[in-house]
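Email to the structure team, subject: DUF6285 domain-containing protein model.

Hi all, the expression group asked for a predicted structure before they design truncation constructs. Nothing fancy, just the tokens so they can compare against earlier work. One-line instruction: predict DUF6285 domain-containing protein, return tokens.
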Amino acid sequence: MINQPETRDLLTEARQVLLDSVAPELTGERKYQALMVANAMGMAIRELEQREQGQPEQTDRTVRAFLAERSLKATAGEAEAALARAVRERHLDGADPAVRSVLRNLTEARLRINNPGYLKR
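Reply from the structure team: attached below.
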């Protein structure tokens, strides 16, 4: 069997080349654009890693269980949207500590992908 690189590995290598070889040669707007692309690639890598660990599914199950405890339904993959709808339609109280905890956990899950450095502060 041929050893094929994983998507994560390809993205990681391409991002490193962009940061180490391409971006230093650029200035101004072009450098900014290259750094934005590198940042987006980093987010994609972290999202792939989260998927490999089953994090999105676990988060979805946790939110669905939370909603079920409150007699609210959500289908697999739709838990965040159902939670948002329940808060928006005032089926859940945003001041409720349990609701705030779920929202905080969802926010932290997003930050682990989009801006992990923020969580370290």
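The two ends are 45 Å apart (CA to CA). Helices lie at 7-22, 28-52, 55-69, 79-88, 97-114, 116-120. Ping us if the truncation boundaries need rechecking.
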